[in-house]
Design goal:
Layout (H helix, E strand, L loop, with lengths): L2 E8 L15 H5 L7 H17 L4 E4 L7 H6 L6 H11 L1 H7 L11 E4 L9 E5 L6 H4 L2 H11 L6 E4 L16 E4 L8 E6 L20 H10 L7 E5 L2 H4 L10 E4 L2 E5 L6 H14 L5 E5 L6 H7 L5 E4 L5 E6 H5 L1 H12 L4 E7 L2 H4 L9 E7 H6 L8 H14 L12 H17 L7 H4 L1
Parallel strand pairs: 1-2, 4-5, 7-8, 10-11, 13-14
Antiparallel strand pairs: 1-15, 3-4, 6-7, 9-10, 12-13
Helix pairs in contact: 2-16, 4-5, 16-17
Amino acid sequence: MKSYEVNFDGLVGPTHNYGGLSYGNVASQSNSQQSSNPKEAALQGLAKMKALMEMGFQQGVLAPQERPDVAALRRLGFAGSDAQVIERAAKDAMPLLVASCSASSMWVANAATVSPSADTADGRVHFTAANLNCKYHRSIEHPTTSRVLGAMFADQKHFAHHAALPAVAQFGDEGAANHTRFCRDYGQAGVEFFVFGRSAFDTRYPAPQKYPARQTLEASQAVARLHGLSDDGVVYAQQNPSVIDQGVFHNDVIAVGNGEVLFYHEDAFLETDKMLAELQAKLGKCGGNFQSICVPRSQVSVEDAVRSYLFNSQLLSRADGSMLLIVPEECRGNERVWQYLQSLTSSGGLIREVKVFDLKQSMQNGGGPACLRLRVALNQTELAAVNPGVIMTAPLYGTLTQWVDRHYRDRLSENDLADPQLLLECRTALDELTQILKLGAVYPFQIN
């Protein structure tokens, strides 16, 4: 039976703004308080989805969340009508209003961790929504994320959904941004690769000194247990604490993997040789041939990697067995990174082609091509069981671009977040979107 890796890209929400909320994310902090363009952001993301679909890749779309999150503000003590809640938050606690308006759910690499049926004990595709406990503005996402994923992957015969891990520091979970999977074929058993920044209980693991390590070993282990993964099908690796302190807040900022290939920076991990040997041995037992591409620090520094988002790229397998790397425009704008990529593709190695996309609106908030997509490996039967409304097609692309044109603003500043009308615009847009994507009632305003 044929199997696929399906990329479900996050649709940028109507409140996309530069709040500078993510400490440890260089781009997010450096562009704080600038005016954003939600319409352009959504259209840039949709253009990438359409392009990948036209290249022959399976492509889906994942809906944004309701923002501002008035219910979250009510839990923090703001009362009255929805408009009054927003007005009082803007007057008394503007940072909380900014957090409640964040469109960060667009980066669906953080939405969940996904294990395909070939790896799990019960033969179903497993989803665990990420608690994103490190940042308040992201920690409020997982209830809606769970409902949206449940509406997309509803057939319990094929799909299993788990609630987010306990929302405490010991189980900080950032989803697929710290997880990838290696396999010879998407439909065959593979090796799931969990990368953590620190251990909550074991002091033998060093921790970063400047920025927080968002993913714990204990969270990764819990997800592996929930998904019914075997010990032979899992490898755990620790991020290098020094690169976290240089702005590598997730593993997908310093490494990307797909199929049998890991593309990573020389400074990405601790005990790299041991980790590579374990990946090679375990994938070999699955019939695979693990291969790695190490980018030397002498050619691309960690700073260049963070600023260009070289590794926050999509590594895609093509029908002829070669690999395609999808990178942001910022890679072409960095002389050292672009020179490295030219030498990489001209060498006749595993990665044969690089395609560049303009994702400036997302990049300025700290998310590149890989942040915008959640990968789900599905066989033909499972793909047929996915809600068809969320699978990208040419007609759906046209419908969604028209929807964005109708509902999105082309400029948004911090002061605009205090406008109660923005909430009404967002709800009107999302109510229509759930009908377009055939999701049913998934948002709080539709349920309560």
